[in-house]
Specification:
With 508 residues, the chain is α/β, with parallel strands linked by helices. The protein has 2 domains: 3-249 and 279-320 and 409-427, 3-Layer(aba) Sandwich (Rossmann fold), CATH 3.40.50.720; 460-507. It has 20 helices and 13 strands. The strands form 4 sheets. A 7-stranded parallel β-sheet has the order 3-2-1-4-5-7-11, sandwiched between helices. Helix 7 (127-147) links the parallel strand 4 and strand 5 (153-157).
Length: 508
């Protein structure tokens, strides 16, 4: 690889370079690894920070990860590329990333690009864990990077929502009056009970510990940028793939896919949200292209040539303009044409901004039916599950409510320019037409992806459509019976005669 070629061609820049990725086994990390191996075939080793989990060591976890359908293309076309993936035992929640000395030295000697993806996205996490996972880990990544002999770029994955205290969020660093060093020290030394009491005061205007800890992490990157070639990418809500390596791939129920599945199954009957609020979505493959392009842009200039922090909002600003209610209605239209299997009732969701109404409807439409259905399952000697599921739905909706009740505008002019400036050669593998980022077809593919990759359902829809028709008829029958029961009760109490008499003067 020549320096001139690396400055011109993205794939040439990555040729022979070793990369260290935290959060490599997560949703974003998997897509990043797949894209690097597929579109930068001469990339060097990719070191993946991993920890043993669920009885599997890191090698077993890697093997299991590579069985995912996301890697089908690589498995058939470039199977030897998997040899470049090297798991490194560690844990972002541990001080020093939990690295062994020999592995740390390997990274210091070989790595030239660091991509810090790892984060705990639990909104209800206690402050100590959030600080360790999202803030201290970022500091430790920077400390490690300072020792790397070949480092040309350190890319930190943040979130547009780290700036929820602003209505309009520009692609720039914002000063913050909380000292990240002091917060790490507090998390390390203060008793858990005291820290839990202290949490609300710490968060201030931020809605949860995730946003707060990620906001502090940006300040860490800002401080270390004086000696490190840093860049920050802030994605909005990262959702299923738009195009590659397969349309609609996803491995979680976050974002609109969760609403599509919950609503399409007939489980999600009520949502606490503002129906007119716009949400900002970003297909994960477009986001990963941004990360790869930005790493190249940052990496071809040394810290002496450019000591600024590059900040990009990876958002769909001025492209996606879809309100919550429009998205829900679209989901119902899509699930009518592409029904999910085993729905428990005709899909229908009520949206409200009144929490008392929401809570009441949760009891009537979620909890009570769940108790009845679980009781029936017990009688049939089957495992009850719906009440537990509805509890998760309730907790999730409450955790997300802040984001479902507010609107932000994440400006992305620098990001759009990043794509516009690509040469024809680079555009082939890394370009994307921002004007076509979202359409009805995209969400159709998202639902199909959910059916295939999350629910393990096939696309033979005959049985699912027949079941949907049965549930629609059952829904109509129950509604009619409900009206007749109410009228019968009113009749038995002579209420109807009173109503008729009261209204008779208006029809005389």
């Amino acid at each position: 690889m020549t320096k001139d070629a690396a400055n011109i061609y993205i794939s040439a820049f990555y040729a022979g370079r070793s990369i260290f990725i935290t959060g490599a086994t997560g949703f974003v990390g998997k897509v990043l690894i797949e894209k690097l191996l597929r579109s930068c075939p001469n990339v060097g080793e990719i070191y993946m920070l991993m920890r043993p989990k669920k009885g599997l060591d890191v090698n077993e976890r890697l093997k299991k990860m590579l069985e995912n359908k996301l890697f089908d293309h690589l498995r058939s076309e470039q199977p030897s590329s998997f040899d470049k993936l090297i798991p490194i035992i560690g844990d972002v929640s541990a001080e020093g990333l939990g690295l062994q000395l020999i592995d740390r030295q390997t990274l210091i000697e070989k790595v030239s690009v660091v991509i810090n993806v790892a984060a705990s996205v639990r909104f209800d996490e206690n402050l100590k864990s959030a600080i360790f996972n999202n803030t201290r880990s970022t500091r430790d990544v920077c400390i490690l990077a300072q020792d790397m002999k070949k480092l040309v770029a350190l890319i930190h994955i943040s979130s547009t929502y780290t700036q929820t205290d602003k209505v309009v969020v520009n692609e720039e660093l914002y000063p913050y009056d909380v000292d990240w060093k002091q917060m790490i020290k507090i998390a390390e030394t203060v008793d858990d009970d005291i820290l839990n009491t202290f949490t609300a005061k710490c968060l201030g205007s931020f809605p949860n510990t995730y946003i707060f800890s990620k906001r502090l992490a940006e300040d860490i990157i800002s401080d270390y940028s004086k000696s490190l070639p840093c860049a920050i990418v802030r994605p909005s809500i990262v959702i299923s793939t738009a195009d590659e390596p397969v349309k609609g791939w996803i491995d979680n129920f976050n974002g609109p896919v969760g609403s599509f599945v919950g609503g399409g199954k007939g489980i999600l009957r009520v949502l606490y949200m503002d129906p007119l609020v716009d949400s900002d979505y970003m297909p994960v493959d477009v986001f990963i292209k941004t990360v790869i392009i930005l790493t190249w842009k940052r990496g071809i200039k040394s810290i002496t040539e450019d000591n600024t922090v590059h900040v990009y909002n990876c958002s769909s600003y001025n492209v996606i303009n879809i309100t919550g209610i429009e998205l829900i209605q679209m989901g119902f239209e899509i699930t009518k044409d592409i029904p999910l299997e085993g729905i428990i009732w005709t899909p229908r969701t009520t949206v409200t901004t009144n929490y008392l109404k929401y809570y009441t409807l949760v009891i009537l439409l979620h909890i009570l039916p769940a108790l009845v259905i679980d009781a029936i399952l017990k009688l049939l000697h089957k495992r009850p599950m719906l009440l537990k599921l509805q509890r998760k739905v309730f907790i999730t909706n409450n955790a997300l409510s802040y984001f479902l009740l507010h609107t932000w505008h994440f400006r992305n002019e620098k990001l759009v320019q990043l794509f516009d400036d690509l040469s024809i050669d680079n555009w082939k593998d890394f370009g994307y037409d921002y004007g076509s980022i979202v359409s009805h077809r995209f969400f159709v593919n998202s639902l199909i992806g959910a059916k295939i990759f999350l629910l393990n359902e096939d696309m033979n829809l005959d049985a699912a459509k027949l079941h949907r028709k049965r549930m629609d008829w059952l829904d109509r029958i129950v509604r009619i019976l409900f009206v007749f029961i109410i009228l019968w009760i009113l009749y038995r109490r002579n209420t109807l005669s009173y109503i008729t008499e009261a209204l008779s003067p208006f029809f005389a």
